[in-house]
């Protein structure tokens, strides 16, 4: 079973209700909802693999599902509400990634509803598929010195951050997600997601941190995480850490000293496949000898 979305990669879910077997790409597992084996290994009975379920990655053997397990899990996923926090200031990377994930999820599961929280000033310019929507929170922009300032509102940054945190928390309270996916920033911008994480943790919501497979320089990342006191949150608050990539390709926490409990939460999702548009070949335009500027 593969999730294909909006010109993007594929997640795979190890709960094929038809063949009752895992599939040959990485598995994303939601705390007891799905389990399967890591990509790159044989899918024959008894072949060694890693079982990814409930945030754990343990050496074991592929376990066939009992009759009806896949159908029941699929029903639970079909009814799920997923809230995604997209850490955006002005760029497109976080927004495009979260949008691709959201589209892949609704493509695969008929009943899934995905709501994206974003501060991107241009999120309204994007098209979203049915059952995917967004909440626009007040924007901020990152300055050349690394500091932030309010983007559209001529008010102090701390006032903007207070509004953002309140909107995020109220959205989660009203939407009542089954799963909360936080993109890249474990605590959100300047800790704005912390109150929401605490509230949803008490309600039993599955909390997931999504990380790129290639992160910042380990020394810089560790320094930042220590300053923000991120590691205790990874260890005690988040249920799972999804790495958008393959385990054999990159370790985003390489060089970062973290408790074993944190590493045990790592789940490699694989990639979403991007479609290449079919473009007609344009006629060559002579540019002569004069200098020119190419804008793409």
3D structure, described in words:
The N terminus is likely disordered. The protein has seven helices and 13 strands. The chain is globular. It is of the alpha/beta class. The strands form four sheets. A seven-stranded parallel beta sheet has the order 7-6-5-10-11-12-13, sandwiched between helices. A two-stranded antiparallel ribbon has the order 1-2. A two-stranded antiparallel sheet has the order 3-4. 39% of the residues are buried.
Sheet with the most strands, sense and barrel status? 7 strands, parallel
Q: Please give the count of helices.
A: 7
Cross-sheet strand order for the largest sheet: 7-6-5-10-11-12-13
Order of helices and strands: EEEEHEHEEEEHEHEHHEHE
Identify the overall geometry: globular
Rounded to the nearest angstrom, the distance between the terminal CA atoms is 36 Å
Spatial extent as radius of gyration: 21 Å
Low-confidence stretches: 1-67
Q: How many strands in all? A: 13
Q: Helix content range of the residues, please?
A: 25-40%
**Mean of residue pLDDT values:** 76
How much of the polypeptide forms β-strand, as a percent range? Answer: 15-25%
Structural class: alpha/beta
């Amino acid at each position: 079973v593969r999730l294909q979305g909006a010109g993007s990669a594929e997640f795979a879910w190890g709960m094929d209700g038809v063949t009752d077997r895992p599939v040959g790409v990485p598995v994303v597992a939601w705390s007891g909802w799905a389990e399967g084996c890591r990509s790159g290994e044989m899918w024959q009975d008894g072949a060694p693999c890693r079982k990814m379920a409930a945030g754990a990655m343990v050496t074991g053997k592929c376990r066939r599902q009992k009759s009806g397990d896949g159908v029941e899990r699929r029903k639970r996923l079909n009814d799920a509400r997923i809230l995604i926090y997209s850490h955006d200031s002005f760029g497109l990377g976080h927004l495009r990634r979260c949008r691709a994930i959201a589209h892949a999820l609704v493509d695969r599961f008929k009943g899934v509803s995905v709501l994206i929280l974003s501060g991107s000033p241009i999120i309204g310019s994007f098209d979203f598929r049915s059952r995917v929507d967004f909440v626009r929170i007040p924007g901020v922009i990152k300055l050349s010195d690394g500091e932030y300032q309010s983007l559209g509102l001529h008010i102090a940054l701390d006032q903007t951050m207070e509004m953002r945190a309140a909107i995020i928390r109220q959205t989660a309270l009203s939407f009542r997600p089954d799963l909360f996916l936080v993109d890249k920033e474990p605590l959100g911008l300047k800790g704005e997601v912390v109150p929401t994480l605490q509230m949803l943790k008490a309600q039993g919501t599955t909390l997931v941190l999504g990380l790129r497979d290639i992160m910042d320089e380990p020394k810089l990342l560790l320094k930042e995480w220590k300053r923000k006191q991120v590691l205790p949150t990874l260890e005690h608050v988040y249920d799972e850490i999804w790495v958008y990539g393959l385990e054999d390709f990159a370790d985003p926490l390489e060089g970062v000293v973290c408790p074993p409990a944190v590493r045990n939460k790592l789940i490699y999702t694989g990639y979403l496949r991007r479609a290449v548009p079919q473009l007609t070949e344009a006629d060559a335009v002579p540019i002569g000898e004069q200098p020119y500027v190419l804008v793409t």
